[in-house]
From TrEMBL:
PROSITE patterns: ABC_TM1 (PS50928). Keywords: Cell membrane, Membrane, Transmembrane, Transmembrane helix, Transport. It is found in: Cell membrane. Residues 86-291 form the ABC transmembrane type-1 domain. It comes from the Bacteria. Its main location: membrane. GO terms for molecular function: dipeptide transmembrane transporter activity. This is ABC transporter permease.
Length: 305
């Protein structure tokens, strides 16, 4: 396991460096002037040149990249993004994916036990609809219904730093539910499809022939085997989840990494935008690594060397 982790961490560090290079240089293809965007109507050639010199934007792009790398681990670099903007993002991402995974497993388990029934068809139609609805549209609908029409949940922002657990949960409901609903559709469909294929396997027929109750056949044999491709999908879903969390943060006005990235892009702060994108890429890579490690928990026969 340790050699595998060492190799994987080395590969991930190289991948993050490549991502940083690509993002930084792609952003500098834009010919817009950050100084003009910052100064606005007060911009003059002299003020713009002075601001570019103060921000280090008067250097060639490779030199700017090296300066950014030098300041990446400084107090105002990646550390501030991790401590200030990343926690709200991880809260919503973690809770949304956890709730989405639990309900996906429960729905797939119920469908498998009632395969071919009206309930199976109704749930399939429901998850098909959820899969087709874009996450940003789903977020706007939930916001309009439960924060504008019914006024049941807060419309934006997070709970105050020292708020009670109930107040914190009340602010988290809509963003977390939006993220969870956006993944329940594709996840439960994939898990249901894997379970349907396993129902026709030889070991399932053998278990039924031995008199094992159908509920136990589904819960202990089918679902456990179907979790392996489901974990693969979880790992592959992290890039999509990052896109979804950015939309959720913008819709609900959450000061997380997604809104920090958009703010940096709108203000042409190339170094800050690259830093936030690098942090989000690290979250994606970490999620994929955790998904790989989860294989050994589901099936102990899988060993990494």
């Amino acid at each position: 396991m340790i050699p595998f982790l060492a190799r994987r961490l080395g590969q991930d560090i190289l991948a993050l460096f490549g991502i940083a290079v690509i993002i930084f240089f792609l952003l500098h293809i834009d010919t817009a002037s950050p100084a003009r965007a910052i100064l606005g109507k007060t911009w003059t050639p002299a003020k713009g040149a002075a601001l570019n010199a103060r921000l280090g934007l008067n250097h060639p792009v490779p030199v700017q990249f090296m300066l950014w790398m030098k300041g990446l681990l400084s107090v105002g670099g990646v550390g501030s993004i991790i401590t200030r903007a990343l926690p709200p993002t991880l809260e919503i991402l973690g809770l949304g994916m956890l709730i989405g995974a639990v309900f996906s497993v429960l729905l797939a388990l119920a469908q498998t036990r009632h395969a071919g029934t009206l309930f199976d068809g109704a749930v399939s139609a429901l998850v098909g609809i959820l899969s087709a609805i874009p996450s940003f549209f789903l977020g706007f609908v939930l916001l309009f219904v439960f924060s504008v029409q019914i006024i049941l949940f807060p419309a934006s922002g997070l709970a105050p730093p020292h708020a009670s657990l109930a107040n914190w949960a009340w602010h988290e409901v809509l963003p977390v539910v939006t993220l969870a609903l956006s993944v329940i559709g594709p996840w439960s469909r994939q898990l249901r499809s894997s379970a349907a294929e396993l129902l026709h396997e030889e070991f399932i027929r053998t278990a039924r022939a031995k008199g094992v109750p159908e509920r136990r056949v589904v819960s202990r044999h089918v679902v456990r085997k179907a979790l392996l491709p489901f974990i693969t999908q979880l790992g592959l879903s992290f890039p999509t989840m990052i896109n979804t969390i950015i939309a959720v943060e913008v819709i609900y006005g959450i000061p997380g990494a997604g809104t920090a990235l958009l703010g940096a892009l709108n203000g042409f702060f190339f170094a800050q935008a690259t830093t936030v994108a690098l942090v989000l890429a690290a979250v994606t890579i970490t999620g994929s690594l955790l998904a790989d490690l989860a294989y050994t928990l589901v099936d102990p026969r899988i060993q990494y060397r």
